[in-house]
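Crash report, auto-generated. Payload:
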Amino acid sequence: MKIILYIIKKEFKQIFRNKGMLPIIFILPVLQLVILSNAATYEIKNIQFGYVDADNSSISRGLIEQFESSTYFNVSEKFPSEKEASQAMQEGTIDAYLNIPTHFERDLQKDKTKDIGVFIDAIDGSAAGVINVYITQIIQNYNKNIVADLIQVSDAVQKPKNIDSIPLFWYNQTLNYKTFMVPGILVLLVTMITLFLSGMNIVREKEIGTLEQINVTPIKKHHFIIGKLFPFWVLGLGLLTIGLILAKVIFNVPMIGNLGLLYVYTAVYILVILGIGLFISNFTDTQQQAMFIAWFFVVIFILMSGLFTPIESMPKWAQILTEFNPVKYFVEIIRMVMLKGSSFNDVFPLAIKTLVYAIVMNGLAVWSYKKTL
Amino acid sequence: MGITISNISKSYGEITALSDISFDVKPGELFGLIGPDGAGKTTLFRILTTLLIADHGQATVAGYDVLNDYKSIRNSVGYMPGRFSLYQDLTVEENLNFFATIFGTTIEENYDLVKDIYVQIEPFKNRRAGKLSGGMKQKLALSCALIHKPKVLFLDEPTTGVDPVSRKEFWEMLKRLQKKGITILVSTPYMDEAALCDRIALIQDGNILEIDTPNAIVSHFPKPLYNISAHNMYNLIESLTNYEHTYSIFPFGEFVHYTDKRHPIDKASLKTYLEFQGLTDIKIEKTQPTIEDTFMELAK
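Recovered output after restart:
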């Protein structure tokens, strides 16, 4: 016990003396949280929008006005023909344009229906999808309004009944993306920092040669490992605390659930990450190698965590792979606890998986740690 | 209670680091392992300190088998690796405390053993180890290797990269430690340090060339040895290399160490030959062989 305590003391001393490391541990994550949470949004604003109005009627102008009044669109210019509009999209000055054909108003009044063309730059596929939804919504709304004007009294009886859907967004009524992104990004920060630091820590002792000296001493390997990793466990929980405070103060993210539960879960979760870090350091000889391998895993963990893309839409094999992704569990649980107020019983199945993961990972890491060269 | 090594072999893939090495170090002996870089010295140290496992052969340290009793060995040996391997960002005192703690002891408990060495670095005890000079680092490393009162001390090239004064001091410290009953196995590429050991083993390419006391090793030198000097060193070496009676030559400071195939040597004809080669200021005098000469001779 005395030995473990002394190693922990020594690790903390080294962490706090490393003038290059301290800002990395504390300031960078804070910056990332603030920057990413403000920047990583799915909302698409300032869409450069053009149009070709060959009809030039009151209805076609009314439609354009709808776009002008939307905060999402910057209606830039009216093109004399489709050719110029297409050219502008080619040059990248507009993201989307609308093509209103001639006799739009006349045909609409006569036939009650008329097609218009919507062209969207799909270089960024997901943005194009969102723009499409916005445009469709505006046109549909406008459609509803003009239908009333167009339909004559005699037709009114035949008017089909519309099904109106009024969405209610539970647990995040205003669909504020920060509410669900901030907890997710917090998970990333805790994971990245603890994985990188723990992964590189023991390798560093290999690199500077101190491990050779340590291995000749009668120190037990679990003493050494616990002593080495405990400081990073504490750091991880410290980071969570800083992150939660920022989430509350800067982003006003709701925290409905029990924070104690979140801490207990995080305590187990960090063990998984430390186990992975130690495992990596057992199979590498330099900090550089450890860093690359840690990066490799972090990128996969992040992209397959359900934070940026829903796991449900991944192919089946990828969904199976995400079962081995600890970040996925943490992202799910932190959102459940903070936004939904889930209780211990709700998170229990996920927490138990995390615990098993922690035991297996640390078991593997301790087993593969060798005191001989 | 010393060290016994019998038929130890170790190879890394195709490369043989040690081939069938056997020797004993007596308890309380200061034993030197002398050889150039890549001779296998560090590999042997790592096997004896239980960091590596040999392919073949047995070894015991302080009476414990390196394979079966490795835990006891780790309690009773001190090891100073060739590379400075203490925590650079911890202070002198913290480093010493750290090693004392993981050996389950305290500085106070074994202070008398490290006192002689530690007092020299004590004025800098709050300085970070990384900021110490080369000689100071060696003293700190030695203190850390001694803090648990080891029975056997392994020093892998402790004086490489250390200035001559610190080297001399370091060897004086080793002599004092030896008097306290500690068995010391030290490796060095410096032949002049070999003379300070009780016995030495000359090692090259994983083979032991010779084991004996420094004096005995020197007396094994097979031929009379001559110092030859002239005004032009390069020409001298060139000329002697082409001389038909040359047995061996190698440059040694301002002289060339020379042995002759003939017995006895014909100094006059050698001198004439050299003069004929255009050399002046030629001096030829008999000299005592050193360990280096013996090593070069054995390594031929």
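Post-recovery validation: The longest helix of chain B spans residues 164-179.
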